[in-house]
Automatic annotation (TrEMBL):
PANTHER family referenced in this protein's UniProt entry, alphabetically: 2-SUCCINYL-6-HYDROXY-2,4-CYCLOHEXADIENE-1-CARBOXYLATE SYNTHASE, AB HYDROLASE-1 DOMAIN-CONTAINING PROTEIN-RELATED
Family: Belongs to the peptidase S33 family.
Keyword Amino-acid biosynthesis: no
Lineage: Bacteria, Bacillati, Actinomycetota, Actinomycetes, Micromonosporales
Protein name: Hydrolase
Source organism per UniProt: Phytohabitans rumicis
Peptidase S33 tripeptidyl aminopeptidase-like C-terminal domain location: 403-494
Molecular function in Gene Ontology: hydrolase activity
Keywords: Hydrolase, Signal
């Protein structure tokens, strides 16, 4: 079950950053006015861009962000640059352009330089780091699983309060200048630096919030914008609890679909099938876990599996990636048979130093955009409400991603809070999976109504983002839009190439 554990480490779509910079204090150099590209791989060029720490004071302190571009394979027909962001918040746009640049180049007929950058708070000398030392980070988070009991919850809240204090102490003025509005201004600066009159952009997950903020701040500067896995912009500005709640409304439905597609696939393809109805067996095992931990003798290290531990990898890693569903089904069948080792190993990501080093920027960005409106002592009640929205995701996300914001030391004065109804000359293309655990289709429909000019393309598929459940139809429609500014007809639905549990899942349909 090593794949599940690796996927857990990439929970919340936190990609492995290619190069982790040492955090420093903001510099005083002037903002970059011309890019100096250097070859850094096949068809890849890299640069550093200096921007003001505070765009309201352009001659004040500065920060430096890494940028990369995958060169267009047909430069003679080049339209411009396609800026990309993979979400997180805080995942590496540099890594996205480096690893997916060739595929995006093919999807857009080789007519764009694919440009990615690591956003402020997550890259360059502007990366949030709350410890600065591997041993200190590991020691701090050791033995702090998602809490279940009252004493565990109080201990966890005390830890997140101390975590927030350390973040404020170590990162100083940076925390007040990492809102999505600050990043949108960085993106507009990058657009000017590459020489594009208008922006062409592909944003995924949190990257869709960057896109929505940009489109509403600078509607006349948008050439084309494809947003995949929509974040709810109004919820994001109404507090941490509201933002989390908006993202949870599709989680349990996706879990139910995971069990249903397993049952339909049958025992030859899904280990949970063939022993009676699938959903009742899995739900009975989870119900038993609420009161009785499960032995995990073969986990690393051996131990027992608790209820919230079992939920964390389901929410953070498995439901969003249908390619992992067969392996997840095998782990759940082992648990039904009395051995929670595989799930325990998958859950260990949330106590690892690597996970917390990656999650710190996302935590800081989320708290900067949407500070919690609740006191720390009130947070257990908030989490109980979140579990009523989603029994699978409420506790893992509520505790793992929301608790620290109750004690966050900084509020961002530059965050954008609306309106969200700007009209762009070209319609914005919205992409939404029908069964989405993190960015519900209902949110995509809401954003379509909010924006003055948008078209929603529904992907009749599963998981977080269209890339999780490949669809040639979605790829072609997105490429056609970015190149020729042609949107699908309203109401268009794209099928997936294959269904989950198909042995050839991820391969093109025959």
């Amino acid at each position: 079950m090593r794949t599940l554990r690796r996927a857990g480490t990439a929970a919340l779509a936190l990609a492995t950053v290619a190069a982790i910079a040492i955090v420093g204090t903001p510099g005083t150099a002037t903002a970059t006015t011309r890019l100096s590209w250097t070859a850094c791989g096949p068809r890849l060029e890299c640069a550093d861009v200096t921007v003001p720490l505070d765009w309201a004071h352009p001659r004040g302190p500065t920060i430096t962000l890494p940028v990369i571009r995958h060169l267009a394979s047909h430069p003679e027909r080049r339209i411009g640059s396609l800026f990309v962001n993979p979400g997180g918040p805080g995942d590496s746009g540099v890594e996205m352009a480096a690893t997916r640049g060739a595929a995006l180049d093919a999807a857009t007929e080789g007519r764009f330089d694919v440009v990615g950058w690591d956003i402020r708070g997550a890259g360059g000398d502007a990366r949030v780091d709350c410890f600065g030392d591997v041993a200190a980070r590991e020691s701090f988070w050791a033995n702090l699983p998602i809490p279940t009991t009252g004493p565990d919850q109080r201990r966890y809240l005390a830890a997140t309060t101390e975590f927030a204090r350390r973040c404020g102490e170590r990162n100083g003025d940076l925390l007040a200048h990492i809102s999505t509005a600050d990043t949108a201004r960085d993106l507009d600066h990058l657009r000017r630096l590459v020489g594009d009159r208008q922006l062409t952009y592909l944003g995924e997950s949190y990257g869709t919030l960057i896109g929505q903020v940009y489109a509403n701040m600078f509607p006349s500067r948008v050439r084309a914008m494809a947003l995949d896995g929509l974040a709810d912009p109004t919820a994001a500005t109404h507090g941490t609890a509201a933002a989390i709640a908006a993202g949870l409304t599709g989680t349990d439905e996706t879990f139910d679909q995971f069990l249903a597609t397993c049952a339909a696939a049958g025992p030859e393809l899904c280990p949970l099938a063939g022993h009676g109805p699938v959903a009742p067996r899995v739900n009975a095992m989870l119900d038993r876990l609420r009161t009785t931990p499960l032995p995990a003798p073969n986990a690393t290290p051996p131990g027992t599996l608790a209820y919230n531990e079992a939920l964390a990898p389901l929410k953070f890693a498995i439901l969003g990636h249908p390619s992992l569903w067969p392996e997840a089904a095998a782990a759940l069948e082992m648990a039904i048979q009395g051995d929670g080792s595989a799930i325990k190993d998958a859950a260990n990501f949330d106590s690892s130093e690597v996970f917390h080093r990656l999650v710190e920027p996302g935590q800081a960005i989320s708290c900067a955009d949407s500070p919690a409106r609740q006191d720390a002592a009130d947070w257990p009640r908030v989490v109980r409400k979140l579990t009523k929205i989603s029994r699978i995701g409420g506790a893992p996300v509520g505790w793992g991603m929301g608790a620290a914001c109750t004690s966050w030391p900084t509020r961002n004065t530059n965050r954008y809070t609306g309106p969200w109804n700007a009209t762009t000359r070209t319609p914005i293309l919205l992409l939404g999976n029908r069964y989405e655990p993190n960015a519900p289709l209902a949110v995509a429909r809401k954003v379509e109504r909010l924006l003055g000019n948008a078209v929603l393309l529904v992907h009749d598929g599963y998981g977080h983002l269209s890339v999780a459940d490949p669809s040639t139809c979605v790829t072609r429609a997105t490429g056609d839009y970015l190149v020729r500014l042609v949107t699908p007809r309203p109401g268009t639905v794209c099928p997936s190439d294959r269904r989950p549990f198909d042995p050839d899942f991820g391969q093109p349909a025959s």
